[in-house]
Amino acid sequence: MKKVLLVLAGLLLALGLSAQEKYVNYPLPENPDTLRILAIGNSFSDDATQYLPDLLEAAGIHNVILGRLYIGGCTLERHCREYKDAGHEYVYLKSTKNKWETVKKYKEGSFLDGVGDEPWDIVTLQQGSPKSGRWESYDPWLGILIEIVRKECSNPRAAIVWHQTWAYARDYQNRNFANYAYDQKYMYDSIQLCVDKASKQYNIPVVIPSGPAVQILRKTNINTDKDLTRDGFHMDYKYGRYATACVWFESLIRPTLGVGVVGNSFRNAGTENEVSEVEAKIMQKVAAKAVRMNK
To answer: Using alpha carbons only, what angle is made at residue 77 by residues 101 and 213, rounded to the nearest 5 degrees?
Structure first.
């Protein structure tokens, strides 16, 4: 019996190793001359990266190229099907001088317009929000999407990173929230479980914790009647987008270029979305805390 158990243990170990080998990943680059980051996603990645070029500009960082390739509501499965069908449903935006510019308008861009545009160092993926806490929607599509990125990205050592999104506002009544019994904590916990599983099963050690940061901020004075959203699920233009951009900065810029978000001077000054010194400090510190907790 002991020998049988040893054989089974060996087989399980071998299966574990083969899974790791199948989804090979690479670390974030350190101090590259130019850092290239592509976000493949939907409106949630659109929200979370909107102010990232502004934070870079305020930090005096001018060697980062950003790409934002998305379809509203896009799931992992749909990204795979868009690639297979050579569809042109994407919006593709790019920042080369710390300012977003539209390369392909809505329903003009293809998957390859974004992925094939640069030798990306970092490619971020995420699930559509209604399915973000439903594991059956990840497997096998996440694995297929990773393989597509590996095939089409001209940088063979690109780091695949996961963007962990946020739960809906507490009083949101959309049918998509019914998947989580209209319970914000249940949705948040479900997303966390899926992210943990995806990180292990698909070898994605780096996770951008936008969801955890938003959940922490919902317990502070920064919170709003719609829980930092503008409509129950998209981030609001003032606090939600600012906070999540801080999380992206702390998750990807600090480990690659050595500059953290705490103390960043960007405030969205002169606009209706300007944040105060105190508010910015709270959001920056929460972003740094969420990233530390996620390691």
So the answer is: 60
Retrieve residue 94's tokens.
Answer: 């790019």
pLDDT at 160: 98
Structural domains of the chain, with CATH? 31-293 (3.40.50.1110)
DSSP state of 110: -
Q: Where are the alpha helices (DSSP H) in the chain?
A: 2-22, 43-49, 52-58, 76-85, 111-115, 141-152, 184-201, 210-217, 239-248, 254-257, 277-293
* pTM recorded for the entire structure: 0.93
Q: What is the pLDDT of residue 216?
A: 98
Closest CA to 246 of 196, 212, 218: 212
Reading the block at residue 138, the tokens are: 């990840």
Measure the CA–CA gap between 33 and 146, rounded to whole angstroms.
26
135-148 pLDDT tens trace: 999 999 999 999 99
Q: Which helix (H) or strand (E) holds 68?
A: strand 64-70
Report d(CA 168, CA 165) in Å as an integer. 10
Would you tell me how many other CB atoms lie within 10 Å of the CB of residue 17?
Answer: 10
State the pLDDT at residue 20. Answer: 57
Q: Which two tokens stand for residue 174?
A: 């959309």
pLDDT digits (tens, 9 = 90+) for 87-125: 999 999 999 999 999 999 999 999 999 999 999 999 999
Coil vs helix vs strand at 244: helix
d(CA 83, CA 166): 26
Sign, CA dihedral 180-186-191-194, equals negative
